[in-house]
Design brief:
Distance between the termini of chain B: 25 Å
CATH class of the largest domain in chain B: Alpha Beta
CATH architecture of the domain at 63-185 in chain A: 3-Layer(aba) Sandwich
Strand content of chain A: 5-15%
Radius of gyration of chain A: 25 Å
Strand content of chain B: 5-15%
Bound molecules: iron/sulfur cluster
CATH superfamily of the largest domain in chain B: Nitrogenase molybdenum iron protein domain
Structural class of chain B: alpha/beta
Strand order of the largest sheet of chain A: 1-12-11-10-13-14
Oligomer: heterodimer
CATH class of the domain at 63-185 in chain A: Alpha Beta
CATH superfamily of the domain at 63-185 in chain A: Nitrogenase molybdenum iron protein domain
Number of domains of chain B: 3
Number of helices of chain A: 22
Chain lengths: ~550, ~450
Amino acid sequence: MKNQEAPQGEALREKVLAGYPAKLAKKRAPQLVVNHTHADGQVPPVKANVRTTPGIITQRGCCYAGCKGVVLGPTRDIVNLVHGPIGCSFYAWLTRRNQTRPPTAQDENFMTYCFSTDMQDENIVFGGEKKLRAAVQEAYDLFHPKAIGIFSTCPVGLIGDDVHAVAKEMKEKLGINIFGFSCEGYKGVSQSAGHHIANNQLFKHVIGLDDQAPEGKFKITMLGEYNIGGDAFVLEELLARCGFTLVATLSGNSTINQFERAHTADLNVVMCHRSINYVADMIEKKYGVPWFKVNFIGAKSTAKSLRKMAAFFDDAELAARVEQVIAEELAKVEAVAARIKPRCTGKTAMLFVGGSRAHHYQDLFAEIGMKTIAAGYEFAHRDDYEGRRVLSSITVDADSRNIEELEVEKDPKRYRKILSDEKRQKLASVNFEFNDYQGMMPQMDDETLVIDDINEQDTQRLLELCKPDIFCAGIKEKYSVQKHGIPCKQLHSYDYGGPYAGFQGAINFYQEIDRLINTRIWSFIEPPWEVAASPTLEATYERG
Amino acid sequence: MNPVTPAIEPRLEATRNACKLCTPLGACLVFRGIRGAMPFLHGSQGCATYIRRYVISHFREPMDIASSNFSEGTAVFGGGENLTRGLDNVIRQYHPELIGIATTCLSETIGEDVPGMLRAYATARAGSPDLPALVHVSTASYRGTHMHGFHDAVRATVAALACQGATLPRQINLLPGLVSPADLRHLREIVAAFGLQAVVLPDYADTLDGPAWDDYQALPDGGTSCSEIATMGQSLATVQFGRALALTAESAADRLQATCAVPACKLGLPIGLRETDALFDCLARLSRQAPPEPFVKERGRLVDAYVDGHKYLAGKRAVLYGEEDLVVGLAAFLTETGIVPVLAASGGKSGVLRQTLTEAAPETASKTQVVDDADFVQIEAAAKALQPDLVIGHSKGAKLARALDIPLVRAGFPIHDRFGGQRLHHLGYRGTQELYDRIVNALLEKTQTESDIGYSYM
Ligand code: SF4
Ligand code: SF4
């Protein structure tokens, strides 16, 4: 049942904080913020990317999860070898359900494999480099892959194994690209550190190795799209239909060769700002490729993003094709929305997930008339909440200080000036923004609640206080949310559904939300004998 | 054609597609089976998160695990402070009756003195009414599999809580091992039918397979309480399942025998007639009561089904993998039905898989290829050469079954590619019956779908 007197704004915030003992509440307070967008677009600051307090049950995973699972997980032809005890590798075995589509059955696909050095006692005591070297050799002998990535889990750093030295040595020996990641789980405060470590290594060891751009006009590289539920397939098809040439995706449905030539695109579009914005910056600095933020979640955002991309290339034919595709697709989307919107209008949603999805998916809810009343990220940073305008004022704490920031310089040979000054000016005059991200909060209503790194207890309080019509999170939250009679949509794995990107994805999502919210199952939770006024039962028993 | 017995591929340095999970996962499952308990991992938060999401994918139920959340600094300077803060916060937020503290590879690698830290913690808070029982178990994953974590956590809990005392003549301890919530409920029913009371450790029948909530439950309802566990030293006997466990580890049953003089009845996992007979026999002796009528009938129906289904199963060749005790239990059962377990594989490496298999399934043991410390690449290679008709095991064998184009009958943990893994029965006459029916039907379904004619009498 909907809670009519649900507290809002500051009252809600205080009620959530009241669940903490005083000291913890004080520490936690800056991570809970009532939204308010000022006339100049500024929003209140959110404390983000700080370590979760011990004993608090967070949604967050570890650095290794962000590195191996998120960034490198979706690439099919790199052998990913996990150096460590077995669990870390086992748990990351295909669990994120990113999909891939090799062109033929003969093409390599190692994603279904889970390689681990499966460290044993003696490796912990005497070091595991020997075992690692042997494992790399085995992987090579078995598959002759183009590349091998080595991922360190927690014990590796402590026992002093040098994965980079082993990678270098084996690279020379075997003549294929081999690179290591120092992504021990205790580094940073969340997966976000792992994204950074993964991307830095890709930038250092892979991007730029192949200058051969693919054939085609209007070349783009898509950054921060991970092909959950087949999103990348939808987008690849959509972009091709519009006339764009997709050089590479980092990293949904990707191959290592795509990474190697990613810099040959003329434009980088960024989906998930959190996991990859720094790569966009680095590519721009080194190779000259400009970037801007796009969002292919939500039909309107998809149309808007496509139009912006067409405007960048400034080609009449391309623009016409894009408009035609949008017109065709929007007609289909609107037909479905018209049917579903009346069934969902006025319902409320909460989104607590990831580093960009809690923002992107608000568009889809809005399209079917639903209101986002609270949202937050699992592992984002302040700029993802407040926009890139706050980048210069972000302080780096001890947990993040050791995550390497690469020094990047202009590549003397391969730097291209893609946009003439004149064209840049022309675009600027129509408010065309590059290197942009406004963040999640300016798009949210005033008085909505923003919570960073939500935990199990906050979640329970929010559910009890507000009784939202739907809660979006991940598998760890799903079943406890649903115990309250509130549907939970997983936005990490999509509940193994999807795709939800692009126009077709929007249709899928509307239907999914309608199904979740309007099912009659929730009405069965209470048995008839527990419904207060149930005279039939009493009467029967009396007579009997 | 007579399939050749393949030489098992040598074990490589790397494990490819592991057939085992990590140690603290087993410990966390045990702590979830204790009333009002919170599992707690001393190490980085990532392991807790991974284990939660993995356990949830099988049970489709909430599974909270707290962690002491090491930072890079903690990894260098030690985790005492994090442990203290973590425990304080868990106690304040959840008011648990017990916190089960397992270690991750990180705190194990550092060599943290967790028992010492816990002693200091308890001393500093002595007299506080909130102070829960603190049970520590050392669970380095580079030393064993999830089953070690499981059994060690049971033993640690008993060691910490069970006390000596006057014998409770109608109470037994039941240590079932890693079985499904449905199995746990069935076991309780069996024991109750003998007029006995069982202290089941762990008992996650309700905590990992419960109904919708009327009110928020900080810790899910259900589980065996600390006060019940305290009486385990007074039970008539301890019934423990697992032939491999019996031979390899100092288990909770041994501990209770040694410290509280509670006799241990060590049985195989009760799958199939003979292993279940042994359980009923044992309970009959302990209760001095004949097996209750409904179960005798269940036994009768099972034998009857063996007869009816024999034509479908005789001579069929099965591949088994998973925890050693489960594999042995399944082999014991299959052998009775006419199926030949041609391959018995496990990620465990207790060294007794061959021996226990020979004891439990003597008729077919000589035809069973045994691979321990196995990964799925080895299992698949060995299976291919053996021309099996079916595979029995958890979800990670799906790829193997597909490669061989034969059915996979799902059993054990984890099952995340089918619905209702937590409600599958495996144990007792009834559980065996269910498993038996599923096996026959899997083979029939394959025959039927592969026939062009579309027979509907099979
Ligand atoms: S570090 Fe150890 S405990 Fe943690 S997930 Fe990996 S294997 Fe399991
Ligand atoms: S051991 Fe470290 S790397 Fe492995 S899952 Fe745990 S936190 Fe992550």
